[in-house]
Amino acid sequence: MFDNLSLKLDKAFQNLKGQGRITEINVATTIKEIRKALIDADVNYKVAKEVTDEIKEKALGEDVLTAISPGQLLIKITNDELTALMGGKSEDIVIEGNPSIILIAGLQGSGKTTFSGKLASYLKKQGRSVLLTACDIYRPAAIDQLKVLGEQVGVDVYAEPENKDAVKIASAAIEYAKKNNHRVVIVDTAGRLAVDEEMMNEIARLKDALKPAETLFVVDSMTGQDAVNTAKAFNDRLNFNGVVLTKLDGDTRGGAALSIRRVVDKPIKFVSTGEKMEAIDRFYPDRMASRILG
Ligand code: GDP
To answer: Coiled-coil regions in this chain (predicted)?
Structure first.
């Protein structure tokens, strides 16, 4: 993950090798290379510029006679800036209300259904009683997929295959949860291949009706700049609480992880790193920055 970006950043820092101190002149090349590395990794241009301007300003403002070398100093500053860019601290999922409702939104193929199963398993391991709800009224296969995942992780699945009203299905699921002492209801929704009005209306209707404690936007990190644009479109309409980045195990260049927080101002809460139900992790900006810098 992020191998190319890590290599390019490492190369950028090499420019400062053997330099006794940071100057306007010797830092300029490094900053330019960091910016290029970020843009090559699909980081939004404006974000890459802002971040590298901040790194440069901090580097020039540091006392040059410290014990650490200019290269090490720049790595430290870059690490701090990337951590801040990704939100600084880790933010946990909000569980609130009885039942607590978690609405899962995103495009088709982003990994919503897989993530719903993973989240159910994750919350079950915390000792919570969870109900999965299938609200993809367009793809019967999505209902079956969720049932299979529910069985796999030992979580009850609520579905009404004949019902084409997502709000009614979800409302019935909440009643079912109350009767059966499920404390968390995860609502998996329909997605389209691209942002469209009908999908947005439906998910917005679900959010208005269910008043979820969490609305999580799931996005495929491999889609780079598109991931950021889709996040913006969903956030403008839904005002979601958090982001889930999927397929971080793939050949992603990292741009989505690095840009989304700054562009939509919502925390990345989870990452998904594979097809298995265990491949779910909370997102820690500092750990991700350290991994990128190698
Ligand atoms: P949905 O249409 O948004 O519900 O997407 P799915 O959950 O059906 O996922 C689409 C495809 O991506 C499936 O083949 C999943 O197995 C796969 N997938 C989901 N999450 C991940 C992940 O984190 N890593 C990898 N490699 N594949 C994933």
So the answer is: none
Counting ligand 1 atoms within 8 A of each CB, the residue from 149, 275, 277 with the most, and so the one to mutate, is 275
Averaged pLDDT, groups of 10, the chain, 294 residues long = 89 89 89 95 92 94 72 93 96 96 97 98 98 93 96 98 95 98 97 90 96 98 92 96 94 87 96 96 95 86
Q: Ligand 1: distance of its center to the CA of 108 in Å?
A: 9
Q: What is the torsion angle, in degrees rounded to the nearest 10, for the CA atoms of residue 221, residue 224, residue 230 and residue 235?
A: 70
Report cis status (omega within 30 of 0) of the bond before 99: yes
Burial class for 127, CB neighbours closer than 10 Å (0-12, 13-18, 19+): exposed
- Measure Cα distances from 278 to 142, 238, 288 in Å: 20, 28, 19
- The reply, when asked if residue 211 is annotated as ligand binding, is no
193-221 b/e with 16+ CB inside 10 Å = b?
eeeeeebbebbeebbeebebbbbbbbbbb
Q: Which residues pair with 272 in a beta bridge?
A: 280
Cα R_g (the chain), whole angstroms: 22
The beta strands (E) that lie in 92-158 are given as 100-106, 130-135, 156-158
Partners of 106 in beta bridges: 218
Instruction: Tell whether ligand 1 has an atom less than 6 A from the beta carbon of residue 221.
Output: no
Tokens matching residue 201: 């209306």
Q: Which of 114, 186, 195 to mutate to test the pocket of ligand 1 (most atoms within 8 A of CB)?
A: 114
Atom of ligand 1 nearest to the CA of 218: 3
The ipTM estimated for the assembled molecules is 0.99
Per-residue confidence (pLDDT) for residue 250, from 0 to 100: 84
